[in-house]
Amino acid sequence: MKQRIMVIGCPGSGKSTLSNKLHNNLGIPLYHLDEIKWQNSNQTIDSETFEEILKYITQLDEWIIDGNYNSTLELRMKKADIVIWLNYSRTICIFRVFKRFIQSFYRKSEGGNPKRMSWSFIKFVWNFKENHDKKLLDLKDKYSNQNEWVILKSKYDTKLFCDKLQES
């Protein structure tokens, strides 16, 4: 398996869950973009600092980076060996976002992006495919000769991918 792995997808698609599995199975350092961007549940670092941190991380030999942040997609994609796109349906993602929100009442916050629920966030998730798929497909076309793309469209696809990973 390649050593620089980018995991992208709609909120609620399972980026962090898959990234944690990859980290545990492969032993590659994992970086969650939300944990880098958010200093606490109320404050983020500035864009320049965020980009500098990502430039440093992407120069490393091994990494798994989970998250979207459109402003840094291309920076990460230029260095990635493999891009895993969790391209799940909007209904699955919305369901998981609500589930995560409800579960957040019973868990201690671990920092990073606050798991708040708002209509604007629900709308963002609902419209993610319309607003982001074209850009991701354009980037796939642009970088397909330099990185491998794995597009997973269901929990079943993801399970098969993880099973295959376990075998190798």
UniProtKB/TrEMBL annotation:
Record's protein name: Topology modulation protein
InterPro entries: Cytidylate_Kinase-2, P-loop_NTPase
Domain of life: Bacteria
